[in-house]
Amino acid sequence: MHLIRRNRILRASAAIREMVAETILRPADLIAPLFIIEGSGIKEEISSMPNYYRMSIDLTVAEVKNLWGLGIRSVLLFIKCADELKDNTGAEALNPDGLMQRSIKAIKDACPGMVVMTDVALDPFSVYGHDGIVNGTEIVNDATVEVLAKMSVSHAQAGADIIAPSDMMDGRILAIRQALEEEGYSRTGIMAYSAKYASCFYGPFRDALDSAPGFGDKKTYQMDHANRIEAVKETLMDVEEGADIVMVKPAMAYLDIIREVRNTVDVPVSAYHVSGEYAMIKAAVKMGWLDENKAIMESLTGIKRAGAGLIATYYAREAAMLMNG
Ligand SMILES: NCc1[nH]cc(CCC(=O)O)c1CC(=O)O
Ligand SMILES: [Mg+2]
Question: Active-site residue among 86, 196, 218, 282?
Answer without folding.
Answer: 196
